[in-house]
Amino acid sequence: DAYAARSTMVIFRNTRNVLIENLMFLNPANHTINIINSRNITVTGITELTYDCNNGDGIGLCCSENAWIFNNFLDTGDDSIVFSAGVGKSASTTGQTGVKNVEIMGNYIHHGHGGVAFGSHTALGISDVLVHDNVFNHTDAPFRIKSAPANGGFVKNVEFTDNAMAFVKQAFTMSTDYNDAGTVSKYGAADKPAVFSQILCKNCTVYGVSGNSVYVCTSKESPHSDIKFKNVVFKRISSLG
Description:
Blueprint: E1 10-13, E2 16-21, E3 24-26, E4 33-36, E5 39-44, E6 47-49, E7 59-62, E8 65-70, E9 73-76, E10 81-84, E11 99-105, E12 108-111, E13 114-118, E14 126-132, E15 135-137, E16 141-146, E17 154-161, E18 164-168, E19 172-175, E20 195-209, E21 214-217, E22 225-237
Parallel strand pairs: 1-4, 2-5, 3-6, 4-7, 5-8, 6-9, 7-10, 8-11, 9-12, 10-13, 11-14, 12-15, 13-16, 14-17, 15-18, 16-19, 17-20, 18-20, 19-21, 20-22
């Protein structure tokens, strides 16, 4: 019971014009910062040391718009920067919107499961995201889009450019086969899995990959589209993925 009741360290809900600057966050019981149903958010100059914390997500944007995340050091126990936009068929009845208009730049991201993670809650959509000029070092999956089949929704218009990655497990992951059991129990499963489109990855370097360099998983009824890689250089690849 205590495990299920672990608290997030900082929550902003229904806020406008938020600035989080020059703070250090250590060892949360669960997630570190969650920003929910908010607008006009800036996170800059912070340090997060949550590696080896159970969950330990860094910065979570849930159903929020207009965010700038730059010049931070994130060493996290789960996804370093993660977007969440609802689950299941009835997500549209909650009165919330998806995640959109986000810029992420100039961050040093160390460890973490997902460096910048889209989902797995994707029902209301995640769109218009620019991720550029960041360093990912020993991050499991620096660029990760994930959704369970029952969550539905979309991820679109994402640009991941001019980023450096080193010693990762999977460099680029885009999948709708994520195991998210039970999350839609009270919302009902979506009619079809999420669709990813207009995804551009360019001008990136990847040094050291122990798993799949690129992994894309879709379904026959909801195929992904317009996913492009341009000038992405891989070195020291350990597998054939």
